Amino acid sequence: MRDDHGDLPLVIDLDGTLLRTDSLHETLLDLLRSNPLALWELPYRLAIGRAAVKDFLARGQVIDADAWPVHEDFLSYLEKQAAVGRRIVLATAADRAVADAIARRFPFITEVIASDGSSNLKGRAKADRLRQAFPEGFIYAGNSEPDYQVWETSRHSILVSVPEGLAQRVRRLGTPLAEFPRQRIGLDTVRRTLRLHQWAKNLLIFIPLVLGGRGSDINAWIAALLGFLALGLAASATYILNDLLDLPSDRRHWSKKSRPLASGELSIAQGTLLAIVGLVAATAIAISAGTLVLALLGLYVAMTTAYSFLLKRIPVLDVLVLAALFTFRLGFGIVLTQVRLSPWLLVFSMFVFMSLSMAKRHTEVLRMGANGLTSMHGRGYVAQDAPLMLAIGVAAMLGAVLILILYLIEDAFPRGFYGNPAALWAVPAILFLFLGRVWLLCQRGQLRDDPVAFALKDKPSLALAGLMAITFAIAVLHVGGA
């Protein structure tokens, strides 16, 4: 490689170089969202060749390239190079339709060289094509092993998110003009992708154990703990599936755009692998717990998958489904611990979580309006729905308080399980204070997008939860009782 590079064109790769994602995976997900039945044609296209697959995925659908995440530091470098007159050429193995969409997004790209449906422009094929197009030489920016063959023929190299072993080999060809370090995937990235804080929802599994009078049964605790772990892993897998299907809307969302998959911090392939591992582990645990537990876990996955593909786009029904998924956790706990739990509590759970789920949607609609939007991408709500959502949410809150009172009168007191049942009269008031606070902050626009995540960090909410736990302890442990 020569040291001079004044008028040489700067040729850039796309996937993993300019983009923090893979356009092939992006277009595959787009097809899965828009027309999943068309996937049956993929094996035929694959038999023709990889270029045919890319052509099939890119044609006949809108390419949402404007929202795909990019390497911001490299993008800034390209803009500066273009500003001083450097010719920027996009040379990619992606289909021509994808490359053209990227060129429209970034006007500094003056020329596009891409796969055309019959030939796949990668590795040696790309190197030969560029050598013919630029006989005077070129600078090449890439990121992966196939790019090494291109670097061998280029005059200068630029490394973008290149693994260290490959980077060392490229440096032996000559000192790169610029290097943009590879970001490592840490435990924090995995934690946020799995949404481990959402596992707090699965603590509902232990409620039947406590209220059903088996709190001292070690076998029941072991069964509940295994169920907690299995459901947590399955839930994390479905969260990833939901995130993959929601990528276009998440990338336009004020807070969800920072999620690992939406931002490109974690690739689509890595996220998919993580989901598969989680689901396999959850299945193995459920099998060890019994056939019924496995069947219920399968039902949960089916419900969440239906929600991710369709039900979340239907206003009001989406909230009912979320409440049902919360209540499912109570039912799962009942099966795991083999206790009798009052139907009143299952109905109560539906109303509580309908209220909290509607608070989440109401917050999103309010913030949507604050950002000048009239509708929510990927959801069925519009800005005008806010008053109705407030009414439904508050009505569900009051319904939950009423049902809890009826449970105390009709079931809790007559059963004689509580040695000091009068202490339970504090619970409806505590619940009212908690839900009332959620809706107060929601209406003020001060609530986080997820009320559950909010409650886990909100000191007044945590204090109310502690007070409720003390109240139940007084009632169950016979403090002050006969």
Please supply descriptive tags for the structure shown above:
Rossmann fold; about 475 residues; six-stranded parallel beta sheet; about 5% strand; Tetracycline Repressor, domain 2
Descriptive report:
Helix 15 runs antiparallel to helix 16, helix 17 packs parallel to helix 19 and helix 18 runs antiparallel to helix 19. This protein is of the alpha/beta class and 482 residues long. The protein has three domains: 171 residues, 3-Layer(aba) Sandwich (Rossmann fold); 156 residues, Orthogonal Bundle (Tetracycline Repressor, domain 2); 140 residues. A six-stranded parallel beta sheet has the order 3-2-1-4-5-6. The termini are far apart. The chain has 21 helices and six strands.
Query: What's the architecture of the largest domain in CATH terms?
Result: 3-Layer(aba) Sandwich
As an assembly, this protein is single chain
Overall shape: elongated
- In total, the number of strands is 6
What's the name of the CATH homologous superfamily of the largest domain?
HAD superfamily/HAD-like
